[in-house]
Amino acid sequence: MHRVSCVKVLEGYRLDLCFADGTRGTADLSGLPRRGVFALWSDYAEFEKARIGDTGELVWSDQVDLCPDFLYLRVTGRKPEEAFPGLRHELTHA
């Protein structure tokens, strides 16, 4: 599991993120809906209140939290099976 170690809010629902393993980059969250659990972000001032939670996730108030692995994939552009080799499946034939 990856951990966010620093966060800076950028314009346009983007975040400049650093991870504990030294990876750094921008996560564009502008495509996430601003309804349901993300309704809080309808007020951009609330989005700007992003902070790092106890386990390296990002949190907004007590309403929204994002998994650091999801954010890592956004920053690196990698697929889950690339970032987490244990997810790869090998087909076996009888």
Category by helix and strand content: alpha+beta
- What is the subunit organization of this protein? single chain
Q: Return the CATH class.
A: Alpha Beta
Major sheet strand order = 1-2-3
CATH architecture annotation: 2-Layer Sandwich
Count of individual helical segments: 3
Low-confidence stretches: none
User: What is the beta-strand fraction?
Assistant: 25-35%
| Radius of gyration, CA atoms, in whole angstroms | 15 Å
Please summarize the sheet with the most strands: 3 strands, antiparallel
Shape: globular
Q: Roughly what percent helix?
A: 10-25%
Rounded to the nearest angstrom, the distance between the terminal CA atoms is 34 Å
Mean pLDDT: 90
CATH topology: NE0471 N-terminal domain-like
| DSSP, total strands | 6
Q: How many structural domains can be distinguished in the coordinates? A: 1
